[in-house]
Amino acid sequence: MTTGPYPTTWRRPPQILKDLRWRIAIQIGIVIYLVLAIGSVEVNWARVYAGLERGQRFVMGFLQPDFTSRWRDISQGLIESLTMTLTSTVVGVAISIPIGIGAARNLAPRWIYYICRSIIAVSRALQEVIIAIFFVAMFGFGPFAGFLTLSFATIGFIAKLLADDIEEIDEAQAEAVRATGASWGQLVNYAVQPQVMPRLIGLSLYRLDINFRESAVIGIVGAGGIGATLNTAIDRYEYDSAGAILLIIIAVVMVAEYSSSYLRKFLQ
Hints:
Layout: H1 20-39, H2 45-63, H3 71-102, H4 110-125, H5 128-139, H6 143-167, H7 171-179, H8 184-218, H9 226-235, H10 239-267
Helix pairs in contact: 2-10, 3-6, 3-8, 3-9, 4-6, 5-6, 6-8, 7-8, 8-9, 8-10, 9-10
Pfam family, one: BPD_transp_1
Domain ABC transmembrane type-1: 78-260
GO cellular component, one term: plasma membrane
């Protein structure tokens, strides 16, 4: 029974499989598959036991972090990560805007649409670590490879979401601007930009947060940043220094999170 747009009584949703025997058979099949899948995992219990011991040492190092003994390396890695994060986000967003506009079906010609969508698909298909390995092989170890990696990943992330937002704009506003005889650039400036700009700013801040966390990951494969320092500390079994680096990463992410939340509220 409904008295308006919302129902007043609860009704059980329809079942996809109405036959009880089929439902039971599927549930049994899922259980059998999970049992076989778990059984196919080869577990070396000796290594598990040794890993627990190393894990305990790492937890103790995390609880007693050492910020002083390798502070020079930690500070250098942190500066590299922050520099890579900021520059790659700015460059990536700047490149993403024209690609996102070109990937919007309601704004771009068909041939431009397919080219821009292909660029987005390539960027989104490759994970950051794979891209970092490729750029490290091309340009060597260091933050430049990390900068290129994060910029490339930012393009696929921002351009994809920007294009989807442009395709979902209020067409009435766009038609009103077109009716005035506005050019294509004026259409983008006066009809599209006011509708997608708040979303673009929020996505850019979110990507800034992602890029800092990814800079710690790609540093493990040689793309610079604090991840390389963390990897070196773990390889040397300096778990107290590794704990200090992890605490710094957590602190920076928390500061970025609270700052971006405040900035989004201010802009809206």
